[in-house]
Amino acid sequence: MSGLERGVHSTRTWLWAGVAIAIAALLFASGWAAQAVFAPAADLGENADVTALVEVREGSIEAHLDVVVDATWAVSSGTVNRSTGTITSLDFSSGAPLAAGDIAYTVDLLPVQVASGSVPMYRPLVEGTRGADVSQLQHLLTSLGYFTGMADGVFGPQTAGAVKEWQRSLGDEPTGGVDLGRVIFVPELPARLVAVDDFAVGDVVSGGETAFKVLSSTAAFVASVTENQVRRIDGGQVVEIDSPVGSVWRGLAGSITADPDSGGYRMPIGPVDGLSICGQECDLVAGDGSVASLHGRVVIQEELTGAVVATSAIRTRDDGTAVVFDANGDSIAVQVTASANGQSLVEGLEIGTEVRAPADREE
Question: Is the Cα torsion angle 178, 157, 187, 90 positive or negative in sign?
Fold first, then answer.
């Protein structure tokens, strides 16, 4: 064999050797990759970083966000006085509910009563007058038990007779007509009134001045929330509010908006099933127009009871199923029903079972 032939043969030998090595390396890598991809999930249970055992226990899961809730009565409208003379008394507590026929104040010792109606009193109501204000008066007389006819807006003899009975009950002269200013009509009853600053006992009034602010029929509740809390509130969650007497009021989280004044966020709280948030305890909310700050909680997770385990012990497989590994490294399929504060409520585990948790996430 010539030197040239020997050189060619040597080169081919090294070439084939290189190809063989490359193929072997490829096969090794492929085998390793296949083993890594198709390794059973149970291998996770033998992972070297799993060093802690946590016990499944009977317990409960719940989560909430603490918030400050402002409670107040918003002003819905104002009421004008039409009497003339000197204010001799204010006969109600500011913000306390007033019903039909309740006396709001007196002028020259003559009582001014509250009635429901959208039309303010702008004229004397006497026999022969007609209109919506007459109908409002008839509704008042009906609610007080003096009128049994139809509230047709016609001031006839039956209405005049009812007015006389009403006047006798008040100790007034039974004229059968209602003088201007003896009634104030408010949009709805019960009504909550707050006297304006320049309407006080001893003031002389000439008629036409604003006497009261009429508060809304339902107390308003608004929570202050932080930017971090906004991310966890989806809207519609239950909000629990601690009342001034220790009871708990419940509402629903509304749409959050930015508050440019504070730089934070404001979240209105609405009623549950259309009911009043404060129920029969709304009188506890200050009715003088001031704001009461109460402690509240946005419920992120309602309390649930059952088998509880550390969330870090739960693994999720590629198919979305959840498993835990017992002390022997064997997998146990579980169903996670709720999670909060590093704990999960699960189905499929017996109380007292010890399961593995990764050391870097140990509870």
Answer: positive
Backbone φ and ψ of 11, nearest 5°: -65, -45
Residue 342 CB: number of other CB atoms within 10 A? 10
Reported as type and span, the H/E element at residue 160 is helix 157-170
Convert the pLDDT of each residue in 52-70 to its tens digit.
899 999 999 888 999 999 9
- Angle (CA) 157-158-164 rounded to 5° is 85
How far apart CA 77 and CA 185 sit, in angstroms, is 11
- HSE-CB of 287 using CA atoms within 13 angstroms: 23
Q: Are 327 and 17 in contact (CB under 8 A)?
A: no
CB-based contact 334:348 (threshold 8 Å): yes
- Residue 156: closest CA among 185, 183, 125, 179: 125
- Is 0.70 surpassed by the pTM of this model? no
- According to the model, what pLDDT value does residue 156 have? 97
- Output the CA–CA distances (angstroms, integers) from residue 320 to 27, 47, 145, 314, 334, in the order listed: 31, 20, 70, 12, 11
What average pLDDT does this structure show over 280-287? Answer: 86
